[in-house]
Amino acid sequence: MDVVDIALVLAGAGTFLLRYLPMAGAGRLDRLPGNAPLYRGLQAMGPAAITALAAVSLLALPPAHGWSATSLLAVAAGGGAVFVVRRWTGSLALAALVPALVYGAVLAAPAWLSRLGGG
């Protein structure tokens, strides 16, 4: 195994634990006082996971094809959608899903528009 393989395995294990630990501790979490370190830690996992995904995504930039107005707009629209959806719905799941759809739609918009225009 080279370094990349080890990094991928560790990233996968970390992603699994970010999803598993809150579910595994949900029953016990109800019995903890609101200021217990475990309670606060599990509450922070959702936003921390979104932040980690955003950081990894942004570190992979610029795109292989280089920066364009469309790619910059897609990043800005997706980033803005995270804040709007989280504030509006309070849902971490929707705050991860909707911005991904917005990002993809903005990147795909030029191709869609050229098909509509007959180009």
Describe this structure in words.
The protein is mainly alpha-helical and 119 residues long. The protein has two domains: 1-45, no CATH class; 61-119, no CATH class. Helices cover 80% and strands 0% of the residues. It is built from five helices and no strands. The longest helix is centred in the C-terminal third of the chain and has 25 residues, at 92-116. The chain starts with a helix and ends with a helix. The relative contact order is 0.07.
Distance between the termini: 48 Å
- The portion of residues assigned to helices is over 70%
| Element-by-element helix/strand order | HHHHH
Class based on secondary structure composition and strand pairing: mainly alpha
- The percentage of residues in β strands lies in under 5%
Report the mean per-residue pLDDT as an integer: 77
Number of separate strands: 0
Please tell me how large the radius of gyration is.
Answer: 19 Å
Please mark out the parts with pLDDT under 50 across 5 or more consecutive residues, or reply none.
none
Contiguous helical run count = 5
Morphology: extended
The tally of structural domains comes to 2
Q: Biggest β-sheet: count, sense, barrel?
A: none
